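User: Please look over both lines:
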Amino acid sequence: MTTVRVAMADATRTLDAAGVPSPRFDAEELLGWLLDCPRTQLWRYDDQPVPLGYDDVVRARAARIPLQHLTGRAYFRHLTLAVGPGVFVPRPETEYVVEHALDALRDMRLADAVVVDLCSGSGAIALSIADEAEAFVGGRLEVHAVEADDAALPWLRRNCVDTRVQIHHADLGVTLGALVGRVDLVIANPPYIPVDAVPRDPEVARHDPPQALYSGVDGLDHVRAVAQAAMQLLRPGGVAVVEHSDQQGPAAQAVFGAPAWDDVTDHPDLSGRDRFVTARRAG
């Protein structure tokens, strides 16, 4: 009989040899998923037989199928999201972008607030803001998630069931008429990889949907489209928060030019790399 303790050690070695960046975590997460047990409680099963299917999912992960596609879930801030093929898996660096957006919204001291998440994907950003901004928005909080891709939309709808988030199946270029000029915060994690670039991670290159990754020759086509949409949606003084790659800081900042935008600032992530731009609508 192979025990959980032995199987997990073997799985960690297998994933490490395959180049998986976090082999121990992934081995534990796959096991916890099969046992319906939090990773922190796996020690309770140390001497129990390994569950059926563990070898199969470890082999799949070693083949660089995303962990989140195997378990069907992704963790983002305080949320557990349903994800899988067809939708972009949210990344930890975006959590810090959301943190800054929440701070900006808090600083506005609004009685009522309207937030739009463009290129919403799984809804990670919109749902986090809906979940966390309620603590400091005194009155009505409206959160809108905008997604154009047909493949991502079912994941967005699934994650937003029984929440305050309102879903719009729309392209960035489509004006959301009822929201024009009344939005306080526009936030987006748009596609930003140049079309001729090759992502380093196999999980990204092989499994993330291309429409969520690539954006023109310089990778900024969607950032420009977000800036144009935000210009229409935001009230004067409203704020845009837009993620970009760690090589696009100055170029992304230049998209938000005067006189349409004030206080244009690029921000690093927690590792010190350029990560997102903020700008305030002039007027």
Summary: Residues 92-107 form the longest helix (16 residues).
